[in-house]
Design brief:
single chain; alpha/beta
């Protein structure tokens, strides 16, 4: 990934507008690692990338090395990542998996921590917002070029 897709840009804009220095972060569906790398470069204490594609793990590790943040980022296949709750969970994946993963994401975000979701079409946003409202205080949706970002704070 290059960061130019609207879903990635929505997440990068969120990162750029929030203080994440010394925060613990999960980039769920890390792909090439662009969000994990951005979080590390913005001062996150540690970043865990998770992806179900072994090639994504390899790409994330290599891109972290190229960006000189490999000591701050570790990438794993699902189920192999550390289980500690984090301050921020980013997930730029499709709406179906976002819905299925809601209980897991709720477990993984500390009370007061942030959740940022992207990869959502406008017609999918309200349903996902309702699902996540069981655990998170959800903010209004943000739209860019036909894609939605949802965000919330863990209760």
């Amino acid at each position: 990934g290059t960061g130019t897709h609207p879903t990635t840009r929505l997440c990068l804009e969120w990162l750029d507008g929030h203080e994440i220095k010394d925060k613990t972060v999960i980039d769920y569906g890390c792909g090439s690692g662009i969000l994990a790398i951005a979080a590390a470069l913005l001062g996150a204490a540690s970043v865990v990338g998770v992806d179900n594609d072994p090639q994504a793990i390899t790409a994330s590790d290599e891109n972290a090395r190229r960006n000189k943040v490999s000591e701050m980022i570790d990438a794993y296949l699902p189920g192999h990542e550390p289980k500690a709750a984090v301050d921020l969970l980013l997930a730029n994946i499709l709406a179906g998996p976002l819905g299925e993963l809601a209980p897991l994401f709720a477990e993984r975000v500390k009370p007061g921590g942030n959740l940022v979701l992207s990869g959502i079409l406008p017609e999918q946003a309200e349903g996902l917002r309702e699902v996540y409202s069981a655990w998170f205080e959800m903010a209004p949706a943000v739209e860019l070029d036909g894609w939605i970002r949802l965000e919330g704070v863990r209760r």
